[in-house]
Every structure is written in structure tokens, then in C-alpha cells.
Amino acid sequence: MTPKEKILKNSIEFRGLIINEVTILERWIDVYIAYYFCTKQEKVNEMVELVLGNNRISLDGKRKLLDVILERQNPAIWKSYPNFHADMNTTMKERNFFAHNFVNFSDEGKARCDNEVGLIIYSHKTRTAWYDRKKIDEILTTIRRCISVIEILHTQPQ
Hints:
By secondary structure, the protein is mainly α. The chain has one domain. It is about 70% helix and about 10% strand. The chain has 7 helices and 2 strands, in the order H-H-H-H-H-H-E-E-H. The protein has a two-stranded antiparallel sheet with strand order 1-2. It is elongated and about 55 Å long. The termini are far apart. The model has no long low-confidence stretch (mean pLDDT about 90).
């Protein structure tokens, strides 16, 4: 496998892992929001299908709505899960980063392709953020913590 093929393979794997986990989180958020507004399963399904699904509301919009609902419904939530807000922000940042940034195919990217993938950050100073398996696992752990909190909250009476 050439270095370019390794870079591409690893970037597809890393992006897929991150985006897949965030998609699971987003579905849990959809269901939580729907149950907040609807009491009948049929209406919950319609809310998810017609309002929350298919990118009618952005993930960031859902996250903000979830924050408001949690604050109104159970302000003590932040004491039980003090890192939830920060974890959600990290999740959003990393998801957007993996979804929208170019992969580094430079000579440096090729030299590091056995263990890392670089994503290029275009801002006032272009730079590359490097991700190895350990960093990906840390991000996935953060996303899964968010999923766990939503699952726990979903099982509690609203």
C-alpha cells in the first residue's frame, strides 16, 4: 500500500468512527427531545421523523435545545454530570473537524501515515492537527460518555 493509500484508508476509518458515534448520539438527543414534547409513542415517532430528523434542525441546534430542556427540567443535572456540557462541546468540535477539514497528503503526512492522520486547519495560520489511534479512542470515549448520559436521562421520569 502506498503512503497516499494508507493516509486515505486511515482517514476514512477515523472519520467513519467519529461520525458514526456522533450519529448515534444525535438519535438519542432526538428521542430525548421528542419525549420531552410528546407523551404518545406515535407522536414521538412523528416528531423525530418530521421535525428532528433529516437535518431539518442542525445537530448544534439540537444540542442547544437539549441544554435548555435539561436546565428547565432538571438544573441539578450539571451537578450529577459536571463534564457533560464540555464533553458535548468537544464532541461537536471534533465531529465538525472530521467532517469538514482536508486530509494532509504532504510529505510530512506520508512520513507519519503509519500511525497518524493529519487534518489541515485553515485559519489565519494554516496548520495540521495530527490524530493517532489513541487520540481517536479518547474522542470516541468522550462521545460515548455523552451517549451514556442521554441514555440514563432517558430512563428517568421527565
